[in-house]
Amino acid sequence: MSETNTVSPLRQRMIEDMAARKLNPHTQRSHIFSCKRFAAWLDRSPDTATADEVRRFQLYLVESTSICNRNRIMTGVRFLFRVTLRRHDLAAEVWHIKEPERLPPVLSPEEIKRVLTMATSLKAQAMLTLAYGCGLRASEVVRLRAGDIDREQKIIRIVQSKGRKDRHVMLPAAVLKLLRQWWKARPTAYDAGVAPDQRWLFPGRGQHQPLTTRQFSRLFKEAAKAAGLRKTICLHSLRHSFATHLLERGKDIRVIQALLGHSKLETTARYSRVATGMIAKIESPLDELSAPRRRRVRRDSEKPPAP
Q1: Which residues are catalytic?
Q2: Is residue 178 packed enough to be buried (19+ CB in 10 Å), middle (13-18) or exposed (0-12)?
């Protein structure tokens, strides 16, 4: 885990363990960074750590970083102990802190319309419309290929997204219209030698590489600034807004779960807490207290029947 260019035997073994388990490349980089940080704090190789040092490192992280970063770092360290070093005694010393539950930031339909209208280019408008209109993650938008767009069935195939899962989402007519316009203006510098259905919908600056999520995020921030939005939002807010607006329109939560690709219904259900349209329509019991009381109609059952 040294800082030199040469890969230490311990790091190489950890890389092999992660590759054997098919961990996402981003996850692998995160785990390596976490162990490097632990080694820097320890000032020696992590395989010589003691239980007390693992405890003190976690106390140090509590004071020096956020809960999210602290949990992420310790996840990588625990992988090193549990899998690579087979030190289950040290892995048992790792604990996680429950992160505070925060409501996802959601834009109103009017704000969404302003963002899409103020997109700085046709490419930005097409990508942002895809993110909101189909509920896609940023990584899913940038990695779309021409063959993923099924015009006949009016669906978009999302191939091997988060959790290595495939899924289908709808293809709105407005999205298809924008994609047709973009395909005519799309740069074709790196299309040579690539099958038509394998070409990136949004090619990047590098050869045979798609646009990066960082560049996509920059396009969103430019559009949000031009639209005059002052909320603390990010590109993922478009996906949050997609789910919330569908829920407010009465769509079945199971359908929304399938469109978003969530494994657990609880993950989708959190949008019910930010569906302001649904919340505003709920009648408070206070309304019953202030409503005029209805007069009860007395039935004169004691009156004798007419002769």
Answers
A1: 137, 162, 236, 239, 262, 271
A2: buried
